[in-house]
Amino acid sequence: MHLQVSLHNPIFIFVIILFFRALEPFIVSARKYRPQTFKDVVGQSSITNTLMNAIEHNHLAQALLFCGPRGVGKTTCARILAKKINQDGTEREDEDFAFNIFELDAASNNSVDDIRSLIDQVRIPPQTGKYKVYIIDEVHMLSQSAFNAFLKTLEEPPKHAIFILATTEKHKIIPTILSRCQIFDFKRITVKDATEYLKHIAEQQGVQAEESALHIIAQKADGAMRDALSIFDRVVSFSGKELTRKAVTENLNVLDYDIYFSATDLILENNIPDLLILFNKTLSLGFDGHHFVTGLASHFRDLMVCQHPETLNLLEVGEDVKQQYQEQAKKTSKEFLLNAIDLANDCDLKYKTSKNQRLLVELTLMKLASITYDGEKKNFNFIIPASHFVRQAPKSNGGKALQKNGMAAPTAKAEKPLPQPSTPKEDVTEATVAEKATVEKVSEPKEGYQPKKIKIKSSEKRVSGLSLSSIKVKKEHENTKSPSVAEEDLPKDSFEEKDMQKHWDDFVHQLEKRGRKILASNLQTDVPKLKNENTIWIELPNSTMKKEIEREQSLMLDYLKQKLNNYSISLFITVNEEVAKKFAFTPEEKYEKLKEKNPNIELLRKEFDLDF
């Protein structure tokens, strides 16, 4: 049986095409799509326009130095320039003037003999075209003697010779060479330009690529177009004609944006358990904690950028991911992002020196998840005011058996001790101070009042101030508490300003003894005065100090009420930033204060040439 094959059979033609295509050698995209004209060069428009204008107006120097990072088009521009200056319009379209272009790798030809051989060739004029172009790549690798041998020729070359030197390390070239060259500094390719060029390459190869996937490739290339094309070839070999963001992140070992979006959502929800599980999942994928933390810090930075329309252009991601950033940025505040960036950056700095790196990252994540924690949940100070223990007198005393200090005598029937929630050590001490202040005798009892010390017993089982048990204990306390005396029935003795100031200072001294020096310092900022009969007025230099005092004012007011036997006392706080000028904080300010008191200090400083 004979198989007859027709040349017009479409199956036969298809097989032949596949056969010859299989015989074609693969050419990497960096070579296949290397620009052939200045218009094709990506991201270097300022340099290419300058070179084209110089050729057009015959202002081209005979020694050029192209410097910049790798893969940005230095050698490509040198080849295009060498070809462009020899074109006069009569040559073939595919003419490359190979006989007029000489490329020398200075990394392997860096001796004096190599340079002398080059100088001997320079003397011979070109056979075709107008110029002979010598491209010396990695010129910083030349030895010191080779540089010196090259100086004279570089300064006064023949009219038909043009030298183009290319280097990635301009600082290694001796100044005498730099002064003889016209220098062109190539910049890194921006992510936007690299993405647009990759999109063009993908269309040429028939690859369906997501824009966010190309953005990741451009970011991974770090400004080098050659690296971007190499990564593109690798990812296309991995995923085929469908280039997705998931395939790119998997192949390049890059954490996907979704990881950071999920982590930020959990941080905003204060969900520490799920956040730690997400971090553990990230580690199981092969990423280290340092990679996770630095990426999270960059994510917070991108969210900060999204909060202002003016800075939105600084976000280098695809349009679909940019939409996600904008939506999440609406959930965050500026204060949260600043604190989050600071914590993540601090973890980044400490990571390499830490002996337990995983614990460091987990601790940072827990701190991040606590930034937006509810203020009431953060307050571990649970102090029962003295007013809670003011009880009504029994009916046999006419309902007026109040103590001098505002406390009622207990009934004859013994009551069950109130359970008390646990508090930090410092707060227990303060509560004890308030308790002692409540029960001490300040003067002779008036008629109808009997001084009586009340002893508060702690429950045997202590509970956390943030637990459900503490809430239950608090409710039980509210239920068992006797009704308090009406406010109008409490003592309201008049007092003088000096007595109030004395007890104020005593309270400050007690705070200092117990280590609460910041609060004590804030209370000493100004001398308290009487605004009216029962209102104490204090003026502070800033709102921060005001908030600190307002947070603790109940403890202080309880103390003053007991000491002055006046339960209608209130505190009035104002802020006057001019007051801050009275205080010296920095060494310079302290010096200025001293100089105001004694001008001779300035003479002393000048005489001995002193400094702060």
Number of strands: 10
Count of helical stretches: 25
Sheet of most strands: 5 strands, parallel
C-alpha termini separation: 107 Å
Based on secondary structure, the structural category is: alpha/beta
Strand order of the largest sheet: 2-3-4-1-5
How would you sum up the global shape?
elongated
Q: Unreliable runs, pLDDT <50, ≥5 residues?
A: 376-449, 451-460
Cα gyration radius (Å): 41 Å
Average residue pLDDT: 76
Strand content bin = 5-15%
- Estimate the helix proportion, in percent: 40-55%
What report would you give on this structure?
- This protein is of the alpha/beta class.
- The chain is 49% helix and 7% strand.
- It has 25 helices and ten strands.
- Helix 12 runs antiparallel to helix 13, helix 14 crosses helix 15 and helix 14 packs antiparallel against helix 16.
- The longest helix has 22 residues.
- The N and C termini lie far apart (107 Å).
Provide key terms for this protein.
612 residues; five-stranded parallel β-sheet; three-stranded mixed β-sheet; 7% strand; elongated
